[in-house]
Amino acid sequence: MSVLHIVNKSPYERHSLDTCLRLAKPDSAILLIEDGIYAVQQNSATSSKMQQALSNHPVYALQPDLEARGVNPDNMIDGISLVDYDGFVKLTTEYDRLQSWL
Amino acid sequence: MKFAILVNEGPYTHQASDSAYHFTEALLRAGHEIVRVFFYHDGVNNGTRLSVPPQDDRNISERWSALAQQHDVELILCVAAAQRRGLLDDDEAKRAGKDSNNIAEGFQISGLGQLIDAGIQADRLIAFGD
After folding, report:
1. Would you call A6 and B16 a contact, using CB atoms and an 8 Å cutoff?
2. In the predicted model, is pLDDT for residue A17 greater than 90?
3. Cβ within 8 Å of B, A 35-74
4. DSSP B90
5. What CATH superfamily classification does B2-128 receive?
6. Is A20 buried (19+), middle (13-18) or exposed (0-12) by CB count in 10 A?
7. What is the pLDDT of residue B3?
8. Subunit contact A98:B125, Cβ cutoff 8 A
9. Structure pTM?
10. In what order do the strands lie in the sheet with A81-83?
11. Does A1 have pLDDT greater than 90?
């Protein structure tokens, strides 16, 4: 059963991304929204963790939330894909279960 | 596909209410069916009709009401969460001896069973919160 894990908190604020990455099965994907966006940045305290995650899972980030935070897409870790809300909806249909890490 | 949406956070707090709204709009754009939007915990504050945000800001409860009206989306406030936070419809106001209701157009008060039912009916349940 495939799962889309949705993380909405900054990795510098809460441990939800860590917990998610520890428990996510290999056939599941990670979607970063809201303050979860801050995990996309290269050369950051969390970038090696995210690079590791990318070798096991597809990782997506919600573009409007990235733009709202002024995070430059050029500064994103390679391999993370941007989606808009329509892409977000499409992802939720492609995975069997949706797990929001609130 | 059938979707159920759970909103656990109030308006103008972090971003959950906005995210849930934009996601719901995108669902409708894609032609999906929305079984129900269930507002729980502080999420019930989305259903007030007395919110008066500045004119250049979004009006979150009016925006939900408009969505309900235009697309026949069911908006449910959890009764226990709503009573605690002073969100009352006519019946609840009368029962509690209060002088007014304050529920926005398109919202209804119902029980937690409606969340379980939405989860059973829908192909996907998505939660937005803090």
Report:
1. no
2. yes
3. 35, 64-65
4. H
5. DsrEFH-like (3.40.1260.10)
6. buried
7. 98
8. yes
9. 0.97
10. A81-83, A59-62, A29-32, A3-7, A97-100
11. no
Residue A38 gets which letter from DSSP?
Answer: G
Number of structural domains (chain A) is 1
Cβ neighbours for B119, distance < 8 A, ≥ 6 positions apart: B4, B125
Domain ranges of chain B: 2-128
Q: Which domain does A49 fall in, by range?
A: 3-100
Q: Residues, chain B, total?
A: 130
Residue type, B60: I
To the nearest whole angstrom, how far is the Cα of A98 from the nearest Cα of chain B? 6
pLDDT digits (tens, 9 = 90+) for B40-64: 999 999 999 999 999 999 999 999 9
Q: For B79, how many CA atoms within 13 A lie in the half-sphere containing its CB?
A: 13
- Whether residue A25 contacts residue A45, with contact meaning beta carbons closer than 8 Å, is answered with no
What whole-number distance in Å separates Cα of residue A41 and Cα of residue A70?
A: 12
B71 band by pLDDT with thresholds 50, 70 and 90: very high
Other beta carbons within 10 Å of A8 = 27
> Looking at chain B, which residue has its C-alpha nearest residue A8?
B130
Q: How far apart are CA B113 and CA B98, in angstroms?
A: 26
Residues of chain A found within 8 Å of residue B126, distances taken between Cβ atoms: 6, 92, 98, 100
Look at B97 and A27; give whichever has higher pLDDT.
B97
